[in-house]
Every structure is written in structure tokens, then in C-alpha cells.
Amino acid sequence: MNQKKKIKPKSSLVYDTSFKLEYLKPTYWGVWISSVFLWLFMFLPGSFLDGLANKLGDLIRNINKKRRRIARKNIDLCFPELNDEEKKELIRRNFRHQARSILYYGIIWWAPKFILKKRIVFQGQENIEASLNNNRSVIFMAAHSLGLEAAVSAATMSYPLSGPFNPMKNKLVDWFVAKGRSRHGGILYTRETGLRPIIKDVRGGCTMFYLPDEDLGAERSIFAPFFGVEKASVPILGRLAKSCKADVLPCMACYDEDRHRYNIHILPALKDFPTGDDYEDTLVMNKSLEEIIRLCPSQYFWIMKLFKTRPDGEAKLY
């Protein structure tokens, strides 16, 4: 395996993960109490956490009717071949995995490496090595899976990684997440800095995650099929791969309930990609997203409004 390189980023642009005294204010005490529980969960067996996650997931599903309706609409659109009971089961399992992903934050943020490497396992790491040995950079094209934080942790333990970070409303939660993603040397930039520093890092030997499945509006997107439905898709992946001289490797994190661990599936690099045609590259991108989501469909972030933006003349779906 390639030895992990050390990449020195532009410090003036890197996301600030320093601790601030304001995090000790009473307004954040609830977050601190929650973080103590997450830290304690790190010492509990996987079977116990899974059982707890299932109960919490069922509770959240019953309470959060809005998100349940969004998930059902997405699944109706993407999996019309499923019957009503199959769709309900998919949603039930999805909310259980949502709860599980939260309970595992303590492990991802604070567990030592020897524990992490038992609870988060690469499947297909040889595909990463093949690209690096061919002197190609690597872009992980990831879906918004509920194990995304585990995938980022696995990557940063083995490879230098650079990428954007979208700040969260709660500053202390934001600090915990940013520290967790950068704990093994990951480099974070705010979205306001743009892609230039990330492209420079990737050209210099970093890997990066790119998540192209979010609906960012008509101004930045073109419409292309996603599970047979026209979806507003940002057509930047092909251009990004060309600029970074990178192979694009589809990536999906799936929780294995029998072994109580996350398997990070790394598929072979997209062939003959990019083509140079934005629409054709977007078709390939969306098709690849479908492929990795089908690896563990109950663990995708179905509560996103995937089809919020509609082509002219089409009615809203949510």
C-alpha cells in the first residue's frame, strides 16, 4: 500500500478547528451532555448499540412525519417496483440507520485507530492503490450515505484527504464534526474558498470526496435521469476530474449488522471518464450513484429533497 503522504495546505484558507471559550457557555451545555453519552457509547458492544439504534430509529420515524413523507416520496419515485410493504420496511430500516449513524459518532471521533480499523473496513482498497500506482489522483464519488462520516474516517487514516466543509448552525456541533473529520490529518476548507485550494491539494497528492447527489438549484445544474426521474444535477465532476488529473472511484459506506461494522465499498474507477461532454458525464455520474446506492438502499439519505428542482412546467414533488 502507498505510504500516506503529508500535505501542507495554505493555512490561511483552512477551516478553523481551534477550540473557543464561547463553547463553554450554558447555551452549549446540552451538546456537551450529548457528547458525553456518545463518548460512553464507544465502550459498548456493537450488538447493544444496534439494539438501541433500532429503538431510537423507530421513535424518530414515528415523530418526524415530515421527513418520513419526504423519504416515502423519494422511494416511490426511485423504486416503483417495490410494493407498499417493501417500501415501509425500507423506510423503517432507513430511520434505524439514521439513529445508528449518530450513535457511532463517538467511535468515529474518539476511538483509537486500532478500534476504528476493526469497526470501519475498506472493501475494494485495491482500486485506490491501482489509481495511485498509475500516478493518478483519486476522487471518491460518494453518495450521501448514513455512514459517510465512517467513510471519511477510513480514508483519512490511510490517505491524505482534502475537501470542502459546510458549517453547521450550532457552533459546538460544527467544531465536533470538523475535528472528527480532520483528526487523522484531513484538510478542510469552507465552501466560500471555492475549489481552487482543493484542486491544488489533490494535484499534490491528496484524495478528495465529492458528493454530487444534492439538489443545488436550477442555476448551477442540468437535468439528467436519476433512478429514471429527471434530477437537477451539478455537471462539475467531469471538469473536476480533468483539472485534478484524477480517477473517479464510486464510494459507499454500508453498515454490516451481522459484524457490527461499516464496510466502505470502493468500486473501480469510472471508465473513459470524463468524456468532455457535461451531459454525458452527468449521465455516467448519476448511473454510478444509482449503482452504489443499490449496495445498501436502506442506508441512503432518503430524507433529502432529491427532486426539489423541477424542469419547466413540471409540478413540485414535495
Any descriptors?
318 residues, 5-stranded mixed β-sheet, 12 helices
Could you characterize what this model shows?
It is built from twelve helices and nine strands. By secondary structure, the protein is an alpha/beta fold. It has a domain at 114-299. The chain is globular, with a radius of gyration of 19 Å.
Helical amount: 40-55%
Strand content: 15-25%
Give me the Rg, rounded. Answer: 19 Å
Give the biggest beta sheet: 5 strands, mixed
Trace the largest sheet across and list its strands. Answer: 1-9-8-2-5
Distance between the termini: 46 Å
- Which sequence of SSEs, written as H and E, runs from N to C? HHHHHHEHEHEHEHEEEHEEH
* Low-pLDDT sequence parts: none
In round numbers, the mean pLDDT is: 93
Number of helices: 12
Overall strand count: 9
**Given the helix and strand composition, which structural class is it?**
alpha/beta
Question: What would the principal axes of the Cα set say about the shape?
Answer: globular
Topology summary:
Layout: H1 29-41, H2 46-63, H3 65-78, H4 84-103, H5 105-110, H6 113-119, E1 120-123, H7 125-133, E2 137-142, H8 148-158, E3 162-165, H9 171-182, E4 187-190, H10 196-203, E5 207-210, E6 222-226, E7 229-233, H11 237-244, E8 246-256, E9 261-266, H12 278-293
Structure in a nutshell:
The chain is an alpha/beta fold and 318 residues long. Helices cover 45% and strands 15% of the residues. The longest helix has 20 residues, at 84-103.
